């Protein structure tokens, strides 16, 4: 499983996949895709990293990453952003859009436009939180498969 | 070649590819090759979703179907034996 070809391919491909997943999450309100799709792409990059490396490397690498904390942050952050709507009228009310908030709160232009990143309000934050939750969950599934069901020898 | 001819030719090719990869995934005795055939099935299916103008579903299918389930199947096959172990 850890031949030189697989290791080299993974070294080149994993940063590209992670950047593409982050792009899909951050542009969720403009282009196709969103929190779930970007999180799945991000987790597939991390799964590539997990499958192509040795047991000890992965164990020391992922001991410092708090995946369960990320998942809780995703769920609680989604609910918190939804509860911000009570500052307006209702639950899930988009209070940040067009409000002049510096991050994702810009004024949405009227008419045909190429799509500006600094718009969207609550929607963009929800995409980010859903993406964090999905990537933590799917990565932890693959990681548990890898760490618990381990065979003693490392080759196929 | 106008657009509709190209569309229908692509539909037929995608259908044939789906059928071939599904049959390969069922008939192969080597489990790793069968899993790779399933990944190819998922990839062609995501192309079909994209052609039918659902890029959202196509991204989800390509990410989950072609990569994550393949990794899970590979890890499960790696940690089991394909023959019956007599104790």
Mean pLDDT of chain A: 87
Quaternary structure state of the chains depicted: heterodimer
Global structural class of chain B: mainly alpha
Give unreliable regions of chain A as ranges: none
Shape of chain A: elongated
- Given the helix and strand composition of chain A, which structural class is it? mainly alpha
Largest sheet geometry of chain A:
none
Mean pLDDT score of chain B, rounded? 88
Tell how many strands the DSSP assignment of chain A holds.
0
How would you characterize the overall build of this protein?
The complex is a heterodimer of chains A (156) and B (87). With 156 residues, chain A is mainly alpha-helical. Chain A has one domain. Chain A has helices spanning 4-26, 35-51, 55-62, 67-83, 122-148. In chain A, α1 (4-26) runs antiparallel to α2. Chain A is elongated and about 55 Å long. Chain A starts with a helix and ends in an 8-residue tail after the last helix. The mean pLDDT of chain A is 87. Chain B is elongated and about 60 Å long. Chain B is built from three helices and no strands. With 87 residues, chain B is mainly α. In chain B, α2 (31-51) runs antiparallel to α3 (55-78). Chain B has helices at residues 3-27, 31-51, 55-78. Chain B has a domain at 29-80. The interface between A and B is medium-sized, with 24 and 18 residues.
